[in-house]
UniProtKB/TrEMBL annotation:
Lineage: Bacteria, Bacillati, Bacillota, Bacilli, Bacillales
Subcellular compartments: Cytoplasm
Pfam families named among the record's database cross-references: ZapA (PF05164)
SUPFAM superfamilies membership: Cell division protein ZapA-like
InterPro entries xref list: Bac_CellDiv_Activator (IPR053712), Cell_div_ZapA-like (IPR007838), Cell_div_ZapA-like_sf (IPR036192)
Protein name: Cell division protein ZapA
Length: 85
C-alpha cells in the first residue's frame, strides 16, 4: 500500500461531474479537467452530431496527438542542448 497522499476533486467535464483522485494538487486536477472539457466542446462545436462516446474518443485522440507533438518538440530541444555541450 502506498503512503502517498491522495487528493480528491469533483470536476465538471462536458456537463457531467466526476470524482478525480490522485497525488496531484486539486488545482492541477481541475486544470486537467478544464482542458478536457474545453477540447470536448471545441470538437463538439465542429461536429455537433457526434454521440458522447465518439466525442470522448476523438477528444482522447486529439489530446494524445497534442501530447506527442509536445514530447517530440521537447526531445528535439533536448538533443540540441546536448549537441551544444
Amino acid at each position: 500500500m502506498s503512503d502517498e497522499r491522495k487528493n480528491k476533486a469533483i470536476v465538471d467535464i462536458y456537463g457531467q461531474q466526476f470524482s478525480v483522485v490522485g497525488p496531484e494538487s486539486i488545482s492541477h486536477m481541475r486544470s486537467v479537467a478544464s482542458i478536457v472539457d474545453e477540447k470536448m466542446r471545441e470538437i463538439s462545436d465542429k461536429n455537433p452530431s457526434l454521440d458522447l462516446n465518439k466525442l470522448a474518443v476523438l477528444t482522447a485522440i486529439n489530446v494524445v496527438h497534442d501530447y506527442l507533438k509536445l514530447k517530440e518538440d521537447y526531445e528535439a530541444l533536448e538533443s540540441l542542448l546536448e549537441e551544444k555541450d
